[in-house]
Amino acid sequence: MSFSGDVKEELSRQFSAARHCQLAELAAIIGMCGDVVISETDQYSIKIHTENAAVARKCFTLLKKGFKIETEIVIRRNQYLKKSNVYLITVFSHEDSVRLLKAMRFLKADQTVDEEIALVSHLVIQRNCCKRAFVRGVFLAAGSISAPEKFYHLEIVCDSRDKAQQLQEIMVSLGVDAKIVGRKKHFVVYIKEGAQIVDFLALTEANVSLMNLENIRILKEMRNNVNRKVNCEAANINKTVSAAVKQIEDIRYIQDQIGLDHLPEGLEEIAALRLEYPEATLKELGTMLTPSVGKSGVNHRLRKISDIACKLKENKEELYYD
User: Fold this and answer.
1) Contact residues for 61 (Cβ-Cβ < 8 A; gap 6+)
2) For position 175, what pLDDT does the model report?
3) Which DSSP string do the residues of 173-216 spell out, in sequence order?
4) Contact criterion met (CB below 8 Å) for 57 and 64
5) How far is 202 from 199, CA to CA, in rounded Å?
6) CB-CB contact of 34 with 233 (8 Å)
7) How confident is the model over 261-314, as pLDDT tens digits?
8) Contact residues for 46 (Cβ-Cβ < 8 A; gap 6+)
9) Among 64, 84, 166, 268, which is 20 to 30 Å from 53 by CA?
10) In what order do the strands lie in the sheet with 72-77?
């Protein structure tokens, strides 16, 4: 199962003890993937479509245990995705449908319902615990999380801008910095930061998934730190090797042109050591001198040698020594 599937499986088994939180979560699921059907005789029924078994199980349990509502579940094979099932949960009872719609505030004062279920009422999510339950239900119905080993991305697909904006406001009020982007005919509420996704999992009470994600984040951070150190060390090694090669070229040029014995004593000594120990660092060369010299002192002498080689190459008639 994917990481997203694991999260939904965990959330599907998370039940709020308070009835008002159950109502908020159910309102989220029905609002995202439910329809209200009105017959020619003005009889109401509610249909909920989902391709996720965990969502179907959660919805069925909320309706039966939370509100004593009997439902019918039909499983169909998706005609476009042959390996995927579509779960259809139906509340056929007019009385139960009306009672549920009133409780979720989807039923208007004139006893009508929008063809597309409207935004959730603030009365349903006035408590923070209800907001968390609502966000949990919305994610179950229309959310997904990418595998964190690859990259961090959580999104919830809404069928209208108003729903997306309301969801974003709710998530922001709970401390999650969600953004909105348009995608074809839908609007996507998304999070791209690992820390923000951790906060989202915490507020929806997906604690096991949260710990799994944190473990992955720690491993990724460790790998990134190791890679940064290796790259830094490799760059330093390349820089040191390139500098040593240039120094040896300058020393050999001086040796061929005038001989190293024409160099001042301090420069002749460091030039001989560099030829003998081409892979040594500046610090190591400094400890070989008598008396020993620090890294900056060795670097200063090698720069003087480079200046002399440069002057020789420019056919200078006189050499100036400090």
Assistant:
1) 15
2) 92
3) HTT---EEEEETTEEEEEE--HHHHHHHHHHTT-HHHHHHHHHH
4) no
5) 5
6) no
7) 888 888 888 888 888 888 888 888 888 888 888 989 888 989 898 888 888 888
8) 30, 34, 35, 36, 37, 90, 91, 97, 100, 101
9) 166
10) 34-38, 44-50, 85-91, 72-77
Contact 28, 120 (CB under 8 A): yes
CB 237 within 8 A of CB 213: no
- State how far the Cα of 229 lies from the Cα of 137, in Å rounded to an integer: 43
Tokens of 66: 């939370």
Looking at the whole model, is its pTM more than 0.85?
no
Q: Please, which residues have CB within 8 angstroms of residue 9's CB and are 6 or more apart in sequence?
A: 1, 54
Which residue segments constitute the domains of the chain, with CATH numbers given? Answer: 3-205 (3.10.28.10), 240-313 (no CATH)
Query: Which element (helix H / strand E) includes 172?
Result: helix 161-173
Q: Angle at Cα 28 formed by Cα 130 and Cα 134, nearest 5°? A: 25
* CB neighbour class for 236 (10 Å; exposed up to 12, middle 13-18, buried from 19): exposed
Contact 98, 44 (CB under 8 A): yes
Question: Which residues is 182 bridged to in the sheet?
Answer: 187
Q: Which of 1-10, 129-138, 214-223, 298-307 has the highest mean pLDDT?
A: 129-138
pLDDT, tens only, 209-245: 999 998 988 888 888 888 888 888 888 778 878 888 8
Look at the block and give the residue holding tokens 């008639």. 317
Lowest mean pLDDT among 57-66, 72-81, 287-296, 300-309: 72-81
- Does 102 score more than 60 pLDDT? yes
As a whole number of angstroms, the distance between CA 144 and CA 155 comes to: 6
Paired tokens of 105:
């505030």
